[in-house]
Backbone:
């Protein structure tokens, strides 16, 4: 192994002095290749799952814009005590989350919006019966979890009353849960979280990262697993769809999002929410420009340093049009599947999608292409 004291040039200037350390896994591999590299000592497992990495970007942040970076092989840091905790979080096998093993393959979370104004499927399932039917169809197509929401959080969306959100979402949560399907409630509001869990929802998916009034205390009392999403350029704020896209700015988008989610994780622990109950979502499309979204995609693997499952929600979003040729939401299926595939390759444990069958097929092909032994008999 490399002796860091004898090869200081292997690490960024200022690595050994004050500053916050981040490690971003690079040179990722999957399937049989990943297992072979780990067995040979040439790579380390990524979050205990089927992927591995053999290179790291070492990042030291001394101030908002004072950041040093260096790409090094894992041998340069794997035995260094300054990197031990970060490497432990990145490589450690994840525990069961919401009753699922996140180490085997990405979980597919199917979107069930009971709203008239969601950016892609608003109005497609406008009532309880159609939303339940859609949820059952997504489950039949292979969704592991159904994410039920009664309030649109697309950019510019106006809030709805709690009574309206309840009328839309709770009957759907109750029916799908009664059918034995794992359901998450997509809400920013404490009372809706409470009623949904009492109605059978297994977990809470909050675009506001439990920063809304009463949400943190409510989630702690409910003892339900949660997803914390980043959706604000205000380090101390919460998501507001009406204003989140009005000139969002960051000193460093990736590190700022990381530190926001890190702070929310710490806040959850203060309220008694165990870290193994939490997943995080970097919030693609929420308080982000296209350049911000691109940077988060590129660096998605860094978020494994938080030590919890990573959810990627990119399906049908407008960044696809900005990355491509301006396609409308109903023409973004290929980009959505590509985003899901990228997320899986970066080790994301949960993929939130509208198109379950197409995503599952793409993931199955990629998985078997990387490990032919998984081919069904």
Residues:
């Amino acid at each position: 192994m490399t002796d860091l004291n004898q090869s200081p040039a292997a690490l960024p200037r200022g690595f050994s002095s004050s500053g916050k350390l981040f490690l971003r896994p690079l040179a990722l591999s999957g399937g049989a290749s990943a297992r072979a590299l780990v067995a040979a000592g040439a790579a380390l497992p990524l979050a205990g799952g089927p992927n591995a990495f053999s290179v790291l970007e070492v990042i030291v942040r001394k101030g908002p814009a004072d950041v040093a970076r260096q790409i090094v092989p894992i041998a340069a840091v794997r035995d260094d005590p300054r990197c031990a905790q970060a490497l432990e979080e990145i490589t450690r096998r994840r525990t069961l989350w919401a009753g699922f093993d996140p180490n085997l393959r990405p979980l597919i979370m199917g979107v069930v919006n009971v709203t008239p104004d969601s950016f892609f499927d608003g109005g497609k399932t406008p009532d309880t019966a159609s939303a339940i039917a859609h949820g059952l169809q997504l489950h039949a197509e292979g969704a592991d979890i159904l994410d039920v929401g009664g309030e649109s959080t697309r950019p510019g969306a106006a809030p709805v009353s709690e009574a309206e959100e309840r009328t839309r979402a709770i009957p759907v949560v109750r029916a799908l849960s009664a059918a034995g399907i794992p359901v998450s409630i997509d809400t920013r509001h404490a009372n809706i979280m409470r009623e949904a869990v009492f109605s059978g929802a297994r977990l809470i998916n909050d675009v506001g990262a439990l920063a809304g009034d009463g949400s943190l205390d409510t989630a702690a009392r409910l003892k339900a697993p949660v997803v914390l999403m980043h959706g604000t350029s205000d380090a101390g704020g919460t998501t507001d769809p009406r204003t989140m896209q009005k000139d969002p700015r960051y000193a460093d988008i990736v590190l700022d999002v990381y530190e926001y989610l890190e702070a929310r994780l710490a806040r959850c622990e203060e309220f008694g929410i165990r870290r193994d109950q939490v997943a995080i979502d970097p919030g693609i499309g929420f308080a982000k420009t296209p350049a911000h979204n691109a940077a988060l995609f590129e660096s998605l693997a860094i978020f494994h340093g938080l030590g919890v499952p990573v959810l990627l929600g990119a399906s049908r979003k407008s960044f696809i049009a900005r990355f491509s040729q301006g396609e409308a939401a109903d023409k973004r299926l290929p980009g959505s599947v590509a985003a899901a595939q990228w997320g899986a390759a970066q080790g994301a444990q949960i993929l939130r999608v509208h198109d379950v069958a197409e995503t599952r097929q793409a993931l199955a092909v990629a998985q078997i292409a990387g490990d032919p032994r998984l081919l069904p008999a």
Summary: The chain has two domains: 8-91, 107-374. The longest strand covers residues 51-63.
